């Protein structure tokens, strides 16, 4: 759900202007994920079992291959490049030196979003466009219900180009941000495939 501030609200948020990262501090601790995209508030429910299993397995696989100067993090950790944008990718890879204790103020090298019924449209459209605009070199989307990995890399025009789609037991041999092998079917326990 996307919300734009309109008038003073019950949480003490000054409205009538785009939301900012400072408004996020007034959001309730209710299990939802609160993100900002160009001043619009995105509210999504907590992820489900398949989603979380994929995140855990992929973070583990990435961490095993990650060079020492890079870091692999999972949500909730914010990419906050400006005051009206704060996104919490399911997984990100960034330079260790770019991270602060609170967030990542620059574009990461890799963003991974795992699709959920409630986030599918945002992940495939609005968030993809935002990551492209921020200059995130690689954007991966995982559909745990198929299972399928779709990989986009920034092209010379600054727009995402489809690199590959791999499904089930097919392997993707990533080169960026570092070499790693990803098999979508292996991201879920056998009984959940």
Automatic annotation (TrEMBL):
CDD domains: DUF820-like. It holds the Pfam family Uma2. GO terms for molecular function: endonuclease activity. Gene3D superfamilies: tt1808, chain A (3.90.1570.10). Transmembrane segments: none annotated. Residues 23-179 form the Putative restriction endonuclease domain. It comes from the Bacteria. Keywords: Endonuclease, Hydrolase, Nuclease. InterPro entries: Nuclease_put_TT1808, Restrct_endonuc-II-like, Uma2. This is Uma2 family endonuclease. It comes from Saccharopolyspora erythraea (Streptomyces erythraeus).
